[in-house]
Specification:
ten-stranded mixed β-sheet; Rossmann fold; 333 residues; 2 domains; alpha/beta; 20% strand; 12 helices; two-stranded antiparallel sheet; 43% helix; globular
Amino acid sequence: MMSIDNQLAYSNVVTNKIFKKVIPIESGVYIAAQGSAFDNQSQTNDVFSEKWGTYEQQSDDQETWKVAQFQWYLRLYGFLNEQELSKFVSRKFFILDAVCGLGYKAAWLARMNRNAIVVAMDYSESIFIACERYRSEPNLVFVKGDIAETPFDNEVFDLISCDQVLHHTENPPKTLNEFNRVMTKDGILNTYVYSKKGLPRELLDEHFRSYSKSLTNEQLWALSEQLSKLGKTLSELKLTIDFPDIPSLSIKGGKQDLQRFIYWNFIKCFWNEEYGLDSSVAVNFDWYSPSNAFRYTQEEFIAMLKAAGFIAEYLHSEEACHTGRFHKQVCSV
């Protein structure tokens, strides 16, 4: 833990170097905004407050799902291993984790470079959970607010990590414009969006963007558990079938596990044996609950980033998502 004098000095650095103006602090968290004026964003914030509030975490961040998330992050953004990411992070001075959820990835990045200031930002109540858990990290700062309208000064961050979040914002292009504003000229943006799936599943997924508003949290949790059990039942069949291509419905054929074929093309029913029931249920809740959950083709993803002034230096696509590392476009004189 830092001494009181060091904490005050550190707070002054944060205030002077990052924020456009003085920001009030509540329970260790800088409060830039309490809630959204947009109904869909407000509902999305609420369901993530609900989701993250249910987690019981281990003291060492070695839960199976967290370890899987760390490894997936490396793959999504083109790093061979944690050492390679750590070397990359060691060259950064101001890092924004936008949106941080429970804060474990922000803490992960903060530990890789103690000379950097890492800002963990979230619009949901999870920011207070993150602050309570990681407040002892000496270079980690917590901010509650909207990543599409931040309290930060121009050209502050040389790394912005927006992992699995951009599609949950009210207006992703606006969010990207804000990232461009607060990122340094030579900064890097790591970001992720959901990919579009087969047409039958897209129709069902889009239905839930509005239907979820009519369900209580209890009903959404019950639905998520039912879908997890469906995924488990299908997985345990261990059936591989040679499916036909159906191009008009964007359904790819070939030899596939039955559960995965249904999952990608008709209905998300996530199940992972290593995660177990509770974590699998949380993944399904994450999908069906929020009103804001946009999906993109890779071409749409690249075009959206380009329109906001970003050029890809690394791209990755898989059935679940599109990701990339992006730098700012260089303006010709």
